[in-house]
Amino acid sequence: MTDKAASSVPSTPPAPHFLRAVIAEDLRSGKHGGRVVTRFPPEPNGYLHYGHAKSIILNFGLAAENGGRCHLRFDDTNPLKEDVEFEDSICDAVRWLGYDWGEHRYHASDYYDDFYRFAEWFIEQGLAYIDSQSAEEMRAARGTLTEPGRASPDRDRSAAESLALFRRMKAGEFADGRYVLRLKIDMASPNLNLRDPAIYRIRHASHHRTGDKWCVYPLYDYAHCISDALERITHSICTLEFQDHRPLYDWVIEKLADGGLLERPLPRQYEFARLNLTYVVLSKRKLIEMVSKGLVDGWDDPRMPTLVGARRRGFTANGFRLLIERTGVSKNDHWLDMSLLENAMRDDLNEIAERRVAVLDPLKLIIDNYPAGKSEDCFAPNHPQKPELGKRALPLSRELWIERDDFMETPPKGYFRLSPGKEVRLRYGYIVQCVGVDKDAAGNIIAVHATYDPDTKSGTPGAETRKVKGNIHWLSAAHAKTAEVRLYDRLFAVPFPGARNPLGDAGGEAPDTELEERDYLDDLNSNSKKIITGYIEAALAEAAPETRFQFERQGYFVADLADHSKETPVFNRAVTLKDSWVSGIKM
Ligand code: ATP
Ligand code: MG
After folding, report:
1. Which of 119, 180, 214, 456 has its C-alpha lying 20 to 30 A from 363's C-alpha?
2. What is the C-alpha to C-alpha distance for residues 73 and 76, in angstroms, rounded to an integer?
3. pLDDT, tens digit, for every residue of 278-308?
4. Any idea which ligand is nearest the CA of 46?
């Protein structure tokens, strides 16, 4: 972990969970000689999403808190789908989350020679054979959970013959699909993964790193465990869907270790529940569909649940860490409500974001008894809980911008903001009293008039003795700058997009979204992006892209990474100050 991330990690003590317990026990027993080595193994075939953040935080975080290390390993065993562009974006995302793999950046393709050598060894041992069945034939013979599989006619092919065929496969003599190499384990195993899994296939394809050197490629289950063992990984943590693959993981590396080809102690796989979040979809296929159909503004659209999107949204790496700490690590799949992620972001942003003023839906307020052409400074704290961050000057003058909904001509009972005859405090400034309104020919209010009380300026002796209930923000019209403000909200309008019951079943249970009885795209939130022009404190235009602020009374905003400049300021709303979604419905 980089120092920057370490120093700002939340100070709450780590909550116990089963992965921490396993590692603590292994350290106690000395199983791996005190070493803790984990790995994050992305396939370089797309942009990382919020779910990957959980895997990254667990792998890098567990290593860091135990004085170990975490490898970044690109699982690039499928030559057809992978690209260098994705590798760069994955590195950026891991670094953005605050982690550093040092010199431990690897590729599964680094081990192609080992995979191949070990495959020949399996053949020589009578533990693997070349099968000439087609993919359909193999699938049909695989059996089901209740029926055993049927042995391939090639299962008893001699080692010498298999070896010769395997070498000819490697030499490029056969077309794709003509043969596969299978382990010889147990066609009657109750675990389908052990029914002679294929470990090598023919693919006449260029690989983004090894070029045309290979036309046979190993399959995931074979390559992954060997990569872990070669890198001397101690704890190989992955999501629950790999639980049934663990016996195969162990079978392969145990055999190789027995044969003296791998060193013990061997890595062990542990499975945890993946991150499932309401109001988004995290499947690569769906994310690709939304981008390619133009339903979002690309992979880094702030509404996209990608890490590039999160970054542009103004979310923080620490917010993700807070979410994972608070929600823990379990062995059962479950859904987290989006409000948990938003709250984690709010809590982190509340700590780190300086306060500023912006008026997003402006209405003119004219202080009739304030001299035209005059201005004076009021002083606003940059962070109410951090006086060390100081104060800044907010110029006040005769004409101000206030929020349109901070004025009502005929207010309901309990409305404490500005209305005819009523008083409010202009934050950090004076108490003003509303004395009238200007309307256009159609009767719309175009300006509000007030008078101010010169003895009530915040911070001056006696100013706070007069209490008023309302306290509104404002900007001097002569000093404020305009900015494009992008108000983002949840990408989907319902918790379980595409589900038969998208609001969830009784008791808040997640419906089986796998059923996908409806089109998830029908559940997009049509109000997830609104672009407005607002007024900002002039100095905000100078903010560096990616600087985050709290706009008082509005929410947390970030200077847009791509589009913000001094000349054309652009701010994105990361999250509102309060949750406006209650029981699945936008309030
Ligand atoms: P997707 O299925 O969404 O396309 P993936 O599993 O194909 O994701 P990989 O690049 O293979 O993407 O994932 C890298 C690592 O991230 C794997 O160890 C995987 O288990 C983990 N991971 C993927 N999705 C999640 C998730 N939702 N929660 C936690 N970990 C995840
Ligand atoms: Mg995967």
Report:
1. 456
2. 9
3. 999 999 999 999 999 999 999 999 999 999 9
4. 1
